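Budget justification note: compute hours in this period were largely spent on complex prediction jobs such as the one shown. Inputs:
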Amino acid sequence: MQARSLSGRRRLYDRTLTALLYFCALLTCALLVFLIGYIFLRGLPHVTWELLSTKPSYLRDSIGILPNIVNTVYLVVLTLLFTLPLGVGAAIYLTEYAGNRRLVSVIEFATETLTGIPSIIYGLVGMLFFCEFLGLGKALLAGVLTLVIMTLPTIIRTTQESLKTVPQSYREAALGLGAGRWHMICTVVLPSSVDGIVTGCILAVGRIVGESAALLFTAGMGMSLNRFFVWTGDLAGSAAATLDSFLHSSGASLTVALYVYAKERAEFDVAFGIAAILMILTLVINLSAKLVGRRLRRA
Amino acid sequence: MMDECVSRPDPAGDGTRSARVRPGAVRVSGARLFETVMYVLFLLCGLIAVGFVCFISVYLIWSGLPAIREIGLIDFLFGKTWASTAAEPEFGILPFILTSIYGTAGAIVIGVPVGFMTAVFLAKVAPPRLAAVVRPAVDLLAGIPSVVYGLIGMMVLVPAVREWFHLPDGASLFAAIIVLAIMILPSIISVSETALKAVPREYEEASLALGATHIETVFRVSVPAASSGIAASVVLGIGRAIGEAMAIMMVAGNVANMPSLFKSVRFLTTAVASEMSYAAVGSLQRQALFSIALVLFLFIMLINVALNALLKRKTD
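Corresponding output:
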Protein backbone atom coordinates (compact mmCIF):
# COMPACT_ATOMS: atom_id res chain seq x y z
CA MET A 1 0.00 0.00 0.00
CA GLN A 2 2.81 2.36 0.84
CA ALA A 3 4.97 1.27 -2.05
CA ARG A 4 2.80 2.91 -4.62
CA SER A 5 3.07 6.29 -2.98
CA LEU A 6 6.85 6.14 -2.69
CA SER A 7 8.96 8.33 -4.88
CA GLY A 8 11.14 6.61 -7.45
CA ARG A 9 14.26 7.43 -5.52
CA ARG A 10 12.97 5.90 -2.32
CA ARG A 11 11.85 2.81 -4.13
CA LEU A 12 15.29 2.44 -5.70
CA TYR A 13 16.94 2.86 -2.28
CA ASP A 14 14.62 0.25 -0.88
CA ARG A 15 15.18 -2.27 -3.60
CA THR A 16 18.95 -1.79 -3.86
CA LEU A 17 19.51 -2.18 -0.17
CA THR A 18 17.27 -5.21 0.10
CA ALA A 19 19.13 -6.81 -2.78
CA LEU A 20 22.45 -5.97 -1.12
CA LEU A 21 21.29 -7.49 2.15
CA TYR A 22 20.23 -10.74 0.54
CA PHE A 23 23.44 -10.80 -1.47
CA CYS A 24 25.66 -10.45 1.58
CA ALA A 25 23.78 -13.12 3.48
CA LEU A 26 23.98 -15.37 0.45
CA LEU A 27 27.71 -14.69 0.21
CA THR A 28 28.24 -15.73 3.82
CA CYS A 29 26.28 -18.93 3.36
CA ALA A 30 27.96 -19.67 0.05
CA LEU A 31 31.32 -19.22 1.77
CA LEU A 32 30.43 -21.77 4.39
CA VAL A 33 29.06 -24.24 1.88
CA PHE A 34 32.19 -23.88 -0.21
CA LEU A 35 34.53 -24.33 2.76
CA ILE A 36 32.78 -27.41 4.10
CA GLY A 37 32.18 -28.85 0.66
CA TYR A 38 35.75 -28.44 -0.49
CA ILE A 39 37.22 -29.91 2.67
CA PHE A 40 34.92 -32.91 2.52
CA LEU A 41 35.46 -33.36 -1.18
CA ARG A 42 39.21 -33.39 -0.91
CA GLY A 43 39.52 -34.80 2.54
CA LEU A 44 36.97 -37.54 3.10
CA PRO A 45 38.38 -39.92 0.48
CA HIS A 46 41.62 -39.96 2.45
CA VAL A 47 40.08 -40.62 5.83
CA THR A 48 40.73 -44.33 5.82
CA TRP A 49 40.73 -46.68 8.75
CA GLU A 50 44.45 -47.03 8.23
CA LEU A 51 44.94 -43.30 8.60
CA LEU A 52 42.94 -43.19 11.79
CA SER A 53 44.43 -46.15 13.55
CA THR A 54 48.13 -46.29 12.83
CA LYS A 55 51.07 -44.15 13.67
CA PRO A 56 53.54 -42.84 11.10
CA SER A 57 55.92 -45.53 10.02
CA TYR A 58 59.14 -44.97 8.16
CA LEU A 59 59.44 -48.66 7.40
CA ARG A 60 56.14 -48.91 5.63
CA ASP A 61 56.36 -45.29 4.42
CA SER A 62 52.88 -44.64 5.66
CA ILE A 63 51.28 -41.92 7.66
CA GLY A 64 48.83 -42.46 10.43
CA ILE A 65 47.30 -39.91 12.72
CA LEU A 66 46.46 -42.11 15.68
CA PRO A 67 49.08 -40.36 17.84
CA ASN A 68 47.52 -37.01 17.03
CA ILE A 69 44.03 -38.21 17.86
CA VAL A 70 45.28 -39.61 21.15
CA ASN A 71 47.11 -36.38 21.93
CA THR A 72 44.03 -34.32 21.20
CA VAL A 73 41.93 -36.51 23.48
CA TYR A 74 44.48 -36.20 26.27
CA LEU A 75 44.64 -32.44 25.82
CA VAL A 76 40.87 -32.09 25.97
CA VAL A 77 40.34 -34.35 28.98
CA LEU A 78 43.19 -32.99 31.06
CA THR A 79 42.49 -29.34 30.26
CA LEU A 80 38.86 -29.75 31.26
CA LEU A 81 39.95 -31.53 34.42
CA PHE A 82 41.89 -28.46 35.50
CA THR A 83 39.74 -25.70 34.06
CA LEU A 84 36.36 -26.87 35.29
CA PRO A 85 37.03 -26.57 39.03
CA LEU A 86 38.84 -23.25 38.61
CA GLY A 87 36.31 -21.76 36.22
CA VAL A 88 33.21 -22.93 38.04
CA GLY A 89 34.75 -21.80 41.31
CA ALA A 90 35.45 -18.35 39.92
CA ALA A 91 31.95 -18.09 38.49
CA ILE A 92 30.45 -19.17 41.82
CA TYR A 93 32.49 -16.51 43.55
CA LEU A 94 31.31 -13.87 41.10
CA THR A 95 27.62 -14.69 41.38
CA GLU A 96 27.17 -16.05 44.88
CA TYR A 97 29.81 -14.73 47.18
CA ALA A 98 31.04 -11.45 45.85
CA GLY A 99 30.24 -8.45 47.95
CA ASN A 100 32.70 -5.92 46.66
CA ARG A 101 31.42 -4.46 43.39
CA ARG A 102 34.83 -3.19 42.36
CA LEU A 103 36.47 -6.56 42.82
CA VAL A 104 33.78 -8.15 40.68
CA SER A 105 34.32 -5.65 37.88
CA VAL A 106 38.09 -6.11 38.10
CA ILE A 107 37.72 -9.88 37.81
CA GLU A 108 35.30 -9.54 34.92
CA PHE A 109 37.63 -7.12 33.16
CA ALA A 110 40.48 -9.59 33.61
CA THR A 111 38.34 -12.36 32.16
CA GLU A 112 37.47 -10.24 29.14
CA THR A 113 41.13 -9.38 28.66
CA LEU A 114 42.11 -13.04 28.75
CA THR A 115 39.60 -13.69 25.96
CA GLY A 116 41.17 -11.08 23.75
CA ILE A 117 44.77 -12.18 24.00
CA PRO A 118 45.85 -13.92 20.78
CA SER A 119 46.75 -17.57 21.04
CA ILE A 120 50.28 -17.04 19.74
CA ILE A 121 51.03 -14.97 22.83
CA TYR A 122 49.63 -17.70 25.06
CA GLY A 123 51.90 -20.10 23.21
CA LEU A 124 54.89 -17.86 23.72
CA VAL A 125 54.31 -17.23 27.42
CA GLY A 126 53.48 -20.90 27.87
CA MET A 127 56.70 -21.87 26.20
CA LEU A 128 58.73 -19.40 28.25
CA PHE A 129 57.15 -20.26 31.55
CA PHE A 130 56.07 -23.88 31.41
CA CYS A 131 58.61 -25.31 29.03
CA GLU A 132 61.67 -23.35 30.00
CA PHE A 133 61.27 -21.78 33.40
CA LEU A 134 59.52 -24.74 34.99
CA GLY A 135 61.61 -27.12 32.95
CA LEU A 136 58.76 -29.16 31.55
CA GLY A 137 60.26 -29.13 28.09
CA LYS A 138 58.08 -29.47 25.04
CA ALA A 139 55.51 -31.71 26.65
CA LEU A 140 51.80 -32.30 26.64
CA LEU A 141 51.62 -31.08 30.22
CA ALA A 142 52.91 -27.67 29.17
CA GLY A 143 50.27 -27.60 26.44
CA VAL A 144 47.57 -28.56 28.93
CA LEU A 145 48.55 -25.82 31.36
CA THR A 146 48.60 -23.23 28.60
CA LEU A 147 45.18 -24.36 27.39
CA VAL A 148 43.84 -24.14 30.94
CA ILE A 149 44.59 -20.43 31.00
CA MET A 150 43.08 -20.00 27.54
CA THR A 151 39.80 -21.77 28.20
CA LEU A 152 39.28 -20.39 31.70
CA PRO A 153 37.37 -17.29 30.48
CA THR A 154 34.97 -19.41 28.43
CA ILE A 155 34.08 -21.61 31.39
CA ILE A 156 33.78 -18.65 33.74
CA ARG A 157 31.50 -16.75 31.43
CA THR A 158 29.14 -19.57 30.52
CA THR A 159 28.93 -20.82 34.10
CA GLN A 160 28.25 -17.29 35.30
CA GLU A 161 25.41 -16.90 32.85
CA SER A 162 23.85 -20.19 33.77
CA LEU A 163 24.19 -19.47 37.49
CA LYS A 164 22.39 -16.20 36.94
CA THR A 165 19.40 -18.00 35.48
CA VAL A 166 18.77 -19.91 38.70
CA PRO A 167 15.82 -18.13 40.33
CA GLN A 168 16.68 -16.19 43.44
CA SER A 169 13.75 -17.90 45.19
CA TYR A 170 15.60 -21.23 45.10
CA ARG A 171 18.49 -19.67 46.98
CA GLU A 172 16.32 -17.88 49.47
CA ALA A 173 14.32 -21.04 50.14
CA ALA A 174 17.48 -22.99 50.87
CA LEU A 175 18.91 -20.30 53.09
CA GLY A 176 15.58 -19.94 54.85
CA LEU A 177 15.64 -23.64 55.68
CA GLY A 178 18.93 -23.06 57.47
CA ALA A 179 21.45 -24.23 54.88
CA GLY A 180 24.86 -22.60 54.86
CA ARG A 181 25.88 -20.81 51.70
CA TRP A 182 28.12 -23.55 50.40
CA HIS A 183 25.52 -26.16 51.19
CA MET A 184 22.94 -24.15 49.30
CA ILE A 185 25.22 -23.80 46.29
CA CYS A 186 26.12 -27.45 46.33
CA THR A 187 22.61 -28.81 46.62
CA VAL A 188 20.41 -26.22 44.95
CA VAL A 189 22.25 -23.85 42.62
CA LEU A 190 24.78 -26.14 40.96
CA PRO A 191 22.37 -28.93 40.00
CA SER A 192 20.04 -26.38 38.42
CA SER A 193 22.80 -24.87 36.34
CA VAL A 194 24.43 -28.09 35.16
CA ASP A 195 23.11 -27.57 31.62
CA GLY A 196 24.90 -24.25 31.30
CA ILE A 197 28.11 -25.68 32.68
CA VAL A 198 27.89 -28.51 30.16
CA THR A 199 27.42 -25.97 27.36
CA GLY A 200 30.52 -24.17 28.60
CA CYS A 201 32.42 -27.44 28.56
CA ILE A 202 31.36 -28.16 25.01
CA LEU A 203 32.41 -24.68 23.88
CA ALA A 204 35.74 -25.12 25.65
CA VAL A 205 36.23 -28.48 23.94
CA GLY A 206 35.57 -26.75 20.62
CA ARG A 207 38.23 -24.18 21.40
CA ILE A 208 40.75 -26.77 22.51
CA VAL A 209 40.24 -28.95 19.45
CA GLY A 210 40.69 -25.97 17.15
CA GLU A 211 43.68 -24.48 18.92
CA SER A 212 47.00 -24.61 17.18
CA ALA A 213 49.18 -21.55 17.77
CA ALA A 214 49.27 -22.05 21.53
CA LEU A 215 50.24 -25.70 21.16
CA LEU A 216 52.93 -25.31 18.53
CA PHE A 217 55.59 -24.26 21.00
CA THR A 218 54.31 -25.83 24.17
CA ALA A 219 53.19 -29.32 23.31
CA GLY A 220 55.51 -29.48 20.36
CA MET A 221 55.26 -31.40 17.15
CA GLY A 222 56.00 -34.94 18.27
CA MET A 223 54.36 -37.62 16.20
CA SER A 224 55.11 -40.65 18.34
CA LEU A 225 52.34 -42.50 20.05
CA ASN A 226 52.15 -41.32 23.63
CA ARG A 227 51.01 -43.92 26.06
CA PHE A 228 50.24 -42.47 29.41
CA PHE A 229 49.63 -45.63 31.25
CA VAL A 230 52.96 -47.27 31.56
CA TRP A 231 52.74 -50.54 33.39
CA THR A 232 56.07 -51.62 34.82
CA GLY A 233 54.82 -54.45 36.97
CA ASP A 234 54.10 -52.67 40.19
CA LEU A 235 51.86 -49.76 41.09
CA ALA A 236 54.45 -47.34 42.40
CA GLY A 237 56.79 -47.90 39.51
CA SER A 238 53.97 -47.53 37.04
CA ALA A 239 52.83 -44.29 38.59
CA ALA A 240 56.35 -42.90 38.44
CA ALA A 241 56.88 -44.07 34.88
CA THR A 242 53.53 -42.67 33.78
CA LEU A 243 54.25 -39.30 35.31
CA ASP A 244 57.68 -39.29 33.77
CA SER A 245 56.47 -40.14 30.27
CA PHE A 246 53.72 -37.61 30.67
CA LEU A 247 56.09 -34.86 31.58
CA HIS A 248 58.54 -35.50 28.81
CA SER A 249 56.69 -36.59 25.72
CA SER A 250 55.87 -33.97 23.20
CA GLY A 251 52.75 -34.51 21.22
CA ALA A 252 51.25 -32.82 18.22
CA SER A 253 47.51 -32.37 18.36
CA LEU A 254 45.38 -32.80 15.25
CA THR A 255 45.63 -29.13 14.32
CA VAL A 256 49.40 -28.98 14.77
CA ALA A 257 49.70 -32.18 12.73
CA LEU A 258 47.66 -30.57 9.97
CA TYR A 259 50.05 -27.65 9.92
CA VAL A 260 53.12 -29.87 9.86
CA TYR A 261 51.81 -32.17 7.13
CA ALA A 262 50.61 -29.29 4.99
CA LYS A 263 53.38 -26.78 5.33
CA GLU A 264 56.49 -28.72 6.18
CA ARG A 265 55.97 -32.12 4.60
CA ALA A 266 53.69 -31.24 1.69
CA GLU A 267 51.51 -34.28 2.40
CA PHE A 268 48.39 -32.56 1.23
CA ASP A 269 46.16 -35.61 1.15
CA VAL A 270 46.80 -36.33 4.78
CA ALA A 271 46.34 -32.66 5.59
CA PHE A 272 42.94 -32.60 3.92
CA GLY A 273 41.99 -35.81 5.69
CA ILE A 274 42.82 -34.23 9.02
CA ALA A 275 40.91 -31.11 8.00
CA ALA A 276 37.86 -33.24 7.20
CA ILE A 277 38.08 -34.89 10.62
CA LEU A 278 38.39 -31.49 12.29
CA MET A 279 35.35 -30.26 10.36
CA ILE A 280 33.31 -33.23 11.51
CA LEU A 281 34.41 -32.62 15.09
CA THR A 282 33.47 -28.94 14.78
CA LEU A 283 30.05 -29.84 13.43
CA VAL A 284 29.45 -32.36 16.21
CA ILE A 285 30.58 -29.93 18.90
CA ASN A 286 28.47 -27.12 17.47
CA LEU A 287 25.41 -29.33 17.31
CA SER A 288 25.81 -30.64 20.84
CA ALA A 289 26.24 -27.13 22.21
CA LYS A 290 23.03 -26.09 20.47
CA LEU A 291 21.10 -29.13 21.71
CA VAL A 292 22.20 -28.60 25.29
CA GLY A 293 21.48 -24.90 24.99
CA ARG A 294 18.00 -25.63 23.73
CA ARG A 295 17.34 -27.98 26.63
CA LEU A 296 18.55 -25.26 28.96
CA ARG A 297 16.21 -22.68 27.56
CA ARG A 298 13.26 -25.01 27.59
CA ALA A 299 13.84 -25.98 31.24
CA MET B 1 19.64 -23.86 64.64
CA MET B 2 21.41 -20.81 66.08
CA ASP B 3 18.33 -19.52 67.84
CA GLU B 4 18.28 -22.39 70.26
CA CYS B 5 21.13 -20.83 72.23
CA VAL B 6 19.38 -17.57 73.01
CA SER B 7 16.33 -18.14 75.13
CA ARG B 8 17.20 -21.05 77.43
CA PRO B 9 17.15 -20.00 81.13
CA ASP B 10 19.45 -22.82 82.22
CA PRO B 11 22.27 -22.87 79.67
CA ALA B 12 24.60 -25.37 81.34
CA GLY B 13 21.84 -27.77 82.23
CA ASP B 14 23.15 -28.20 85.79
CA GLY B 15 20.91 -25.84 87.67
CA THR B 16 23.17 -22.81 87.39
CA ARG B 17 22.79 -19.89 85.05
CA SER B 18 26.38 -19.96 83.87
CA ALA B 19 26.77 -19.86 80.14
CA ARG B 20 29.30 -22.53 79.40
CA VAL B 21 30.03 -23.71 75.94
CA ARG B 22 27.37 -26.11 74.78
CA PRO B 23 27.66 -28.88 72.23
CA GLY B 24 25.47 -27.08 69.73
CA ALA B 25 27.77 -24.08 69.72
CA VAL B 26 30.76 -26.13 68.65
CA ARG B 27 28.86 -27.53 65.70
CA VAL B 28 27.79 -24.06 64.64
CA SER B 29 31.31 -22.65 64.67
CA GLY B 30 32.51 -25.74 62.83
CA ALA B 31 30.03 -25.05 60.09
CA ARG B 32 31.02 -21.40 60.11
CA LEU B 33 34.68 -22.36 59.70
CA PHE B 34 33.83 -24.62 56.80
CA GLU B 35 31.86 -21.82 55.19
CA THR B 36 34.80 -19.44 55.59
CA VAL B 37 37.13 -21.98 54.03
CA MET B 38 34.83 -22.38 51.05
CA TYR B 39 34.55 -18.62 50.71
CA VAL B 40 38.31 -18.22 50.64
CA LEU B 41 38.58 -21.06 48.14
CA PHE B 42 36.12 -19.44 45.79
CA LEU B 43 37.71 -16.04 46.26
CA LEU B 44 41.03 -17.54 45.19
CA CYS B 45 39.38 -19.05 42.13
CA GLY B 46 37.93 -15.68 41.27
CA LEU B 47 41.26 -13.96 41.66
CA ILE B 48 42.99 -16.49 39.43
CA ALA B 49 41.83 -14.76 36.24
CA VAL B 50 43.28 -11.48 37.48
CA GLY B 51 46.43 -13.33 38.48
CA PHE B 52 46.81 -14.84 35.02
CA VAL B 53 46.44 -11.48 33.28
CA CYS B 54 48.99 -9.85 35.55
CA PHE B 55 51.30 -12.81 35.15
CA ILE B 56 51.14 -12.77 31.35
CA SER B 57 51.66 -9.01 31.20
CA VAL B 58 54.58 -9.04 33.60
CA TYR B 59 56.23 -11.99 31.90
CA LEU B 60 55.93 -10.45 28.45
CA ILE B 61 57.28 -7.12 29.63
CA TRP B 62 60.10 -8.80 31.47
CA SER B 63 61.09 -10.92 28.45
CA GLY B 64 60.58 -8.21 25.90
CA LEU B 65 62.42 -5.29 27.47
CA PRO B 66 66.04 -6.49 27.28
CA ALA B 67 66.13 -6.59 23.49
CA ILE B 68 64.42 -3.23 23.18
CA ARG B 69 66.92 -1.76 25.56
CA GLU B 70 69.81 -3.18 23.58
CA ILE B 71 68.52 -2.33 20.13
CA GLY B 72 67.07 1.03 21.06
CA LEU B 73 63.36 1.79 21.04
CA ILE B 74 63.34 4.05 17.97
CA ASP B 75 65.54 1.74 15.92
CA PHE B 76 63.39 -1.19 16.93
CA LEU B 77 60.00 0.30 16.27
CA PHE B 78 60.82 2.34 13.22
CA GLY B 79 63.72 0.51 11.63
CA LYS B 80 62.84 -0.62 8.16
CA THR B 81 65.08 -3.64 7.91
CA TRP B 82 64.75 -6.90 9.70
CA ALA B 83 67.80 -9.03 9.13
CA SER B 84 68.14 -11.12 12.23
CA THR B 85 70.47 -13.73 10.84
CA ALA B 86 72.70 -11.48 8.78
CA ALA B 87 76.34 -10.90 9.66
CA GLU B 88 75.40 -7.44 10.86
CA PRO B 89 71.98 -8.08 12.31
CA GLU B 90 69.35 -5.40 12.13
CA PHE B 91 66.16 -5.55 14.12
CA GLY B 92 63.75 -3.01 12.75
CA ILE B 93 60.14 -4.18 13.02
CA LEU B 94 58.44 -1.43 11.07
CA PRO B 95 57.70 -3.87 8.21
CA PHE B 96 55.86 -6.17 10.61
CA ILE B 97 53.94 -3.37 12.29
CA LEU B 98 52.87 -1.88 8.98
CA THR B 99 51.99 -5.28 7.54
CA SER B 100 49.80 -6.08 10.53
CA ILE B 101 48.12 -2.68 10.29
CA TYR B 102 47.55 -2.89 6.53
CA GLY B 103 46.45 -6.50 6.72
CA THR B 104 43.97 -5.76 9.47
CA ALA B 105 42.74 -2.64 7.69
CA GLY B 106 42.24 -4.60 4.49
CA ALA B 107 40.39 -7.37 6.30
CA ILE B 108 38.16 -4.78 7.97
CA VAL B 109 37.44 -3.00 4.69
CA ILE B 110 36.28 -6.24 3.10
CA GLY B 111 34.84 -8.03 6.08
CA VAL B 112 32.89 -5.29 7.86
CA PRO B 113 30.52 -4.35 5.04
CA VAL B 114 29.65 -7.97 4.28
CA GLY B 115 29.40 -8.86 7.96
CA PHE B 116 27.39 -5.77 8.82
CA MET B 117 24.92 -6.34 6.00
CA THR B 118 24.54 -10.00 6.92
CA ALA B 119 23.89 -8.96 10.52
CA VAL B 120 21.24 -6.47 9.40
CA PHE B 121 19.75 -9.21 7.27
CA LEU B 122 19.61 -11.66 10.17
CA ALA B 123 18.31 -9.16 12.68
CA LYS B 124 15.80 -7.20 10.67
CA VAL B 125 15.02 -8.48 7.23
CA ALA B 126 15.21 -12.25 7.14
CA PRO B 127 12.07 -14.31 7.48
CA PRO B 128 12.44 -16.47 10.59
CA ARG B 129 12.82 -19.71 8.64
CA LEU B 130 15.67 -18.28 6.57
CA ALA B 131 17.33 -16.78 9.64
CA ALA B 132 17.19 -20.22 11.25
CA VAL B 133 19.35 -21.48 8.39
CA VAL B 134 21.77 -18.58 8.13
CA ARG B 135 22.46 -18.12 11.81
CA PRO B 136 23.79 -21.67 12.43
CA ALA B 137 25.90 -21.21 9.30
CA VAL B 138 27.52 -18.17 10.91
CA ASP B 139 28.08 -20.04 14.18
CA LEU B 140 29.71 -22.86 12.25
CA LEU B 141 32.01 -20.44 10.46
CA ALA B 142 33.10 -19.20 13.86
CA GLY B 143 33.99 -22.68 15.02
CA ILE B 144 36.23 -23.73 12.14
CA PRO B 145 39.85 -24.00 13.33
CA SER B 146 42.21 -21.45 11.85
CA VAL B 147 44.56 -24.09 10.41
CA VAL B 148 41.69 -25.30 8.25
CA TYR B 149 41.23 -21.78 6.91
CA GLY B 150 44.95 -21.67 6.32
CA LEU B 151 44.89 -24.97 4.49
CA ILE B 152 42.13 -23.91 2.12
CA GLY B 153 43.83 -20.57 1.66
CA MET B 154 47.06 -22.33 0.84
CA MET B 155 45.54 -24.81 -1.58
CA VAL B 156 42.84 -22.73 -3.25
CA LEU B 157 43.43 -19.03 -2.77
CA VAL B 158 47.18 -18.83 -3.19
CA PRO B 159 47.27 -20.68 -6.55
CA ALA B 160 44.29 -18.61 -7.67
CA VAL B 161 46.08 -15.37 -6.79
CA ARG B 162 49.13 -16.64 -8.62
CA GLU B 163 47.05 -17.33 -11.73
CA TRP B 164 44.95 -14.18 -11.75
CA PHE B 165 47.70 -11.70 -11.09
CA HIS B 166 50.55 -13.51 -12.83
CA LEU B 167 52.82 -13.59 -9.82
CA PRO B 168 55.66 -16.01 -9.22
CA ASP B 169 54.10 -17.05 -5.94
CA GLY B 170 50.59 -16.38 -4.77
CA ALA B 171 51.45 -16.12 -1.08
CA SER B 172 50.98 -12.46 -0.42
CA LEU B 173 49.39 -9.76 1.67
CA PHE B 174 46.36 -9.93 -0.62
CA ALA B 175 45.74 -13.61 0.14
CA ALA B 176 46.17 -12.93 3.86
CA ILE B 177 43.67 -10.07 3.73
CA ILE B 178 41.04 -12.28 2.11
CA VAL B 179 41.54 -15.09 4.60
CA LEU B 180 41.43 -12.65 7.53
CA ALA B 181 38.26 -11.03 6.19
CA ILE B 182 36.53 -14.42 6.10
CA MET B 183 37.77 -15.27 9.57
CA ILE B 184 36.47 -12.11 11.22
CA LEU B 185 33.03 -12.35 9.55
CA PRO B 186 31.41 -14.44 12.30
CA SER B 187 32.56 -12.12 15.10
CA ILE B 188 31.26 -9.04 13.31
CA ILE B 189 27.98 -10.70 12.39
CA SER B 190 27.13 -12.05 15.83
CA VAL B 191 27.96 -8.93 17.83
CA SER B 192 26.29 -6.58 15.33
CA GLU B 193 23.21 -8.77 15.25
CA THR B 194 22.95 -8.65 19.04
CA ALA B 195 23.32 -4.87 18.98
CA LEU B 196 20.67 -4.48 16.29
CA LYS B 197 18.23 -6.74 18.10
CA ALA B 198 18.65 -4.63 21.23
CA VAL B 199 17.32 -1.48 19.58
CA PRO B 200 14.02 -0.59 21.28
CA ARG B 201 10.99 -1.37 19.16
CA GLU B 202 9.55 2.06 19.92
CA TYR B 203 12.20 3.72 17.78
CA GLU B 204 11.33 1.54 14.81
CA GLU B 205 7.59 1.82 15.29
CA ALA B 206 7.84 5.60 15.53
CA SER B 207 9.77 5.71 12.28
CA LEU B 208 7.29 3.44 10.54
CA ALA B 209 4.42 5.52 11.84
CA LEU B 210 6.02 8.57 10.29
CA GLY B 211 5.84 6.88 6.91
CA ALA B 212 9.28 5.39 6.43
CA THR B 213 9.57 2.02 4.76
CA HIS B 214 10.99 -0.93 6.64
CA ILE B 215 14.38 -0.64 4.94
CA GLU B 216 14.55 3.09 5.55
CA THR B 217 13.75 2.49 9.21
CA VAL B 218 16.44 -0.14 9.47
CA PHE B 219 19.16 1.98 7.96
CA ARG B 220 18.17 5.40 9.23
CA VAL B 221 16.96 4.52 12.73
CA SER B 222 18.03 1.06 13.92
CA VAL B 223 21.56 1.11 12.62
CA PRO B 224 22.47 4.49 14.13
CA ALA B 225 20.87 3.40 17.38
CA ALA B 226 23.02 0.26 17.40
CA SER B 227 26.13 2.11 16.28
CA SER B 228 28.22 1.61 19.38
CA GLY B 229 27.49 -2.12 19.35
CA ILE B 230 28.44 -2.28 15.69
CA ALA B 231 31.60 -0.32 16.42
CA ALA B 232 32.34 -2.81 19.19
CA SER B 233 31.99 -5.62 16.69
CA VAL B 234 34.48 -3.90 14.39
CA VAL B 235 36.95 -3.50 17.23
CA LEU B 236 36.47 -7.18 18.07
CA GLY B 237 37.19 -8.04 14.45
CA ILE B 238 40.33 -5.90 14.56
CA GLY B 239 41.47 -7.75 17.66
CA ARG B 240 40.96 -11.12 16.01
CA ALA B 241 42.68 -10.08 12.80
CA ILE B 242 45.75 -8.69 14.52
CA GLY B 243 46.13 -11.80 16.63
CA GLU B 244 45.76 -14.40 13.91
CA ALA B 245 48.89 -16.45 13.33
CA MET B 246 48.39 -19.94 11.95
CA ALA B 247 46.21 -19.15 8.96
CA ILE B 248 48.48 -16.30 7.94
CA MET B 249 51.58 -18.44 8.27
CA MET B 250 50.19 -20.60 5.53
CA VAL B 251 49.13 -17.93 3.04
CA ALA B 252 51.24 -14.84 3.43
CA GLY B 253 54.67 -16.11 2.59
CA ASN B 254 57.38 -15.37 5.07
CA VAL B 255 59.66 -12.63 3.86
CA ALA B 256 60.32 -9.57 5.98
CA ASN B 257 59.34 -7.07 3.29
CA MET B 258 57.78 -3.70 3.73
CA PRO B 259 54.13 -4.39 3.03
CA SER B 260 52.94 -4.37 -0.53
CA LEU B 261 49.77 -5.99 -1.74
CA PHE B 262 51.30 -8.72 -3.84
CA LYS B 263 54.58 -9.29 -2.10
CA SER B 264 55.29 -12.00 0.40
CA VAL B 265 55.08 -10.41 3.83
CA ARG B 266 55.43 -11.14 7.49
CA PHE B 267 52.99 -10.04 10.15
CA LEU B 268 53.83 -9.39 13.79
CA THR B 269 52.37 -12.78 14.68
CA THR B 270 54.13 -14.76 11.99
CA ALA B 271 57.40 -12.95 12.74
CA VAL B 272 57.26 -14.38 16.25
CA ALA B 273 56.18 -17.83 15.15
CA SER B 274 58.48 -18.39 12.21
CA GLU B 275 61.84 -17.63 13.77
CA MET B 276 61.11 -18.99 17.23
CA SER B 277 61.98 -22.52 16.28
CA TYR B 278 65.52 -21.79 15.22
CA ALA B 279 66.54 -18.77 17.26
CA ALA B 280 69.33 -19.72 19.65
CA VAL B 281 68.43 -19.52 23.30
CA GLY B 282 69.76 -16.33 24.87
CA SER B 283 70.59 -14.70 21.58
CA LEU B 284 69.53 -11.19 20.74
CA GLN B 285 67.47 -12.59 17.89
CA ARG B 286 65.36 -14.61 20.31
CA GLN B 287 64.94 -11.71 22.68
CA ALA B 288 63.93 -9.49 19.78
CA LEU B 289 61.17 -12.01 19.04
CA PHE B 290 59.91 -11.58 22.59
CA SER B 291 59.93 -7.84 22.07
CA ILE B 292 57.81 -8.28 18.95
CA ALA B 293 55.36 -10.26 21.04
CA LEU B 294 55.37 -7.43 23.60
CA VAL B 295 54.55 -4.88 20.89
CA LEU B 296 51.74 -7.15 19.67
CA PHE B 297 50.46 -7.48 23.23
CA LEU B 298 50.42 -3.71 23.67
CA PHE B 299 48.47 -3.31 20.44
CA ILE B 300 45.92 -5.82 21.68
CA MET B 301 45.64 -4.10 25.06
CA LEU B 302 44.99 -0.79 23.34
CA ILE B 303 42.27 -2.41 21.26
CA ASN B 304 40.74 -3.98 24.36
CA VAL B 305 40.66 -0.63 26.14
CA ALA B 306 38.99 0.94 23.11
CA LEU B 307 36.47 -1.91 23.07
CA ASN B 308 35.65 -1.42 26.71
CA ALA B 309 35.25 2.33 26.26
CA LEU B 310 32.85 1.73 23.38
CA LEU B 311 30.82 -0.82 25.30
CA LYS B 312 30.60 1.47 28.30
CA ARG B 313 29.33 4.24 26.10
CA LYS B 314 26.62 1.93 24.83
CA THR B 315 25.28 1.24 28.29
CA ASP B 316 25.37 4.86 29.39
